[in-house]
Amino acid sequence: MSDIELMKDFSLDYFRLDGKAAIVTGANKGLGMGYALALAKAGADIFLPYRSGDISEVRSLIEAEGRRVEFLQGDLTDIEHVRAIVSGCMEAYGRIDVLVNNAGTNCFCDFADFPDEGYLRVINTNLNSVYFLSHEVSRVMIAQRSGKIINIGSALSYTADERCPSYVAAKHGVIGLTRAFANELGKYNIQTNAVCPGFIETGVTAGVTSDSDFTGRITRRISAGRWGTLADIMGTIVFLASRASDYLNGSDIKVDGGFSTKLV
Ligand SMILES: NC(=O)c1ccc[n+]([C@@H]2O[C@H](COP(=O)([O-])OP(=O)(O)OC[C@H]3O[C@@H](n4cnc5c(N)ncnc54)[C@H](OP(=O)(O)O)[C@@H]3O)[C@@H](O)[C@H]2O)c1
To answer: Which residue among the candidates 131, 167, 188, 247 is catalytic per the annotation?
Structure first.
């Protein structure tokens, strides 16, 4: 196609996900629920692995968009569950177009007392499960010769904070995996990118946001002057899942209202 034809061909349909199947881990609550709903609004059917809790709300939100959602309960640190996610999604939809590695956990403790269990649990959940699930999914995507892997990092993918060394290590590692997958899988038309949310208000951060001293210090560093919301981040997920981002590979996108660009 000529340049003119290419430009004329471009439309907002490039952001549509009709006919696509997306796996979003840990999406029955928090940010993941927003990601799953965003992908459904763009037209994708959703496969939703979750560990515990209520699935009725996310089910009704996705079904209200006229999309399908299938659930599988399990622990992402269990390789059998990871394999069952891939076979479950293939059984349900016959393809895997998008993987969002969203599920995550944390452990806070002074370094001297930091529990070995907490260190390993966070590394296994936030880093190793990203590797193992992406590894399994990549085989399907390689056969399809297409796919999008979206890893969820953090502000702590770039810097460290006190009392959470395992989270810092895992989230730095997620950026490394993103680049490694991009290098390995780009030739199969599979793009891997990371989204690094800044401070986003969800049910989980409610405890933190009620600490006005901490909130004040953080908010002063956010040039947007406020914490993020789920709606602030949903569009980035749709973009990275869609044809509109086909030439983006190995990138990490900070959705943080400017937090990371300020020194103090
Ligand atoms: N909220 C923020 O401001 C923010 C900022 C930066 C990055 N992030 C990242 O964004 C992601 C989602 O965060 P969130 O705030 O939405 O957290 P959240 O509400 O706590 O949700 C985390 C989800 O991950 C699941 N999960 C945890 N460990 C699991 C395991 N071993 N196996 C399967 N599922 C597991 C949880 O299941 P259970 O309900 O069973 O625990 C839950 O569904 C995380 O990767 C987090 O690090 C969040």
So the answer is: 167
